[in-house]
Amino acid sequence: MFKFSILSAFRRKTVSVLAIVGVGLGSGLLVVLLSLSGGIESRFNTTFQSLSGTISVSSEGGSLFGRFLGMTGDPIPKSYADKIEGLEGIDSAASFVSAPVRSDKFGPLRSFGVGLTGVIAGGEIFGNPNQNIVEGRSFENDNEVIAGSEIFDVSRFADFDLKVGDKITVPIGSTRETLDLELVGIFKTGEPTNDNGLFANEKTARDLADLKENQISGILVKVSNPEEVNDIAKNIEEAFKESDPLVSASVPANIFESLSSFLDVFNLFLLSISLVAAAAGGTAVMVVMLLTVFERRQEFGILKAGGWSNRNVIVSVVITSLTLSILGAGFGLLVGSGAALGLQKLAGAVSDRQFIAFTWDIFAWAAGVGIVTGLLGGIIPAVSAARVSPIKTLRGE
């Protein structure tokens, strides 16, 4: 019966192929969307982990992510870093000077500016960009800068020319003077929060920001226990409540925690689309099986007259449906994987970022949903086949 049921799936080859394609498209779409969702989630988690346990300290009212644009707000005294390092629960504190770099070399980024950071101490908190050079070299002299790899992702997309060795002329602070910078290298730390900016020595950043020697733009703090990061942030603000200027101690990871709920909704949306497509594939199997059962009513009647029970008929039709579903799911995994890799290749033309992430869970989900929906699509036809009367069939009714 098993072999008979499998072979029955291919009696009408054209219709069977359509059923396989229907299930395959549903499973394939599931692979594409889930792999896209996995890639986004992986990138989100990488960024979240890089910010876990860190606190950004700037003058009161300063922007949490101002360093990325070189606009952290008013400067704070350099001595604040020593006081923060002396607080309980602090692992390290890295002072930095930041300034906006606006140049035609950055194309559409010119209007916003690219943040240039000069690290005074604690470069490991920033991912040690000068030790992760992928092209050129690190800065050695004043007015030399290195650029994060993700800036060049934008350059490919926006079609602006920026390369190692270029001279970049930028205005100094609020003055009318300019400073000529030289791009000497490209770095990649693997942390998006750092790889979107420029780095230089302290003097270059200070000259560009037009800050005095006793002033800094902010402090990036690493705590010993990430679970205490919010309490320590409050302690930092409390420690400077009598100081002038006051400070804001912000926890970047909190922003990403709030974004995680949006990511969950987005993933649910993608999953819903995939399930609708999978249901359409199951419907295709059901339609094919109903047509098959209608054409084979006389055959089922004869089989029942020859000793087959209703259970035998149902099992036979379900096996036929399952055969189409398994083939469709396999076809979908191949097509979906190919489509996802194709999308990644297209995206790779403008960015080195990994947008697609494959896991065994994705393939299990896609195959499982395709098989189950196809199997469910065969239940109604199976019950219909079991109701065929052998007596009426033998009478030719």
Automatic annotation (TrEMBL):
Keywords: Cell membrane, Membrane, Transmembrane, Transmembrane helix. This is ABC transporter permease. The chain crosses the membrane at residues 268-293, 313-342, 362-386. Belongs to the ABC-4 integral membrane protein family. It comes from the Bacteria. Pfam families: FtsX, MacB_PCD. InterPro entries: ABC3_permease_C (IPR003838), MacB_PCD (IPR025857), Macrolide_Exporter_MacB (IPR050250). It comes from candidate division WWE3 bacterium. It is found in: Cell membrane. The lineage of its organism: Bacteria, Katanobacteria. Residues 272-390 form the ABC3 transporter permease C-terminal domain. The keyword Disulfide bond does not apply.
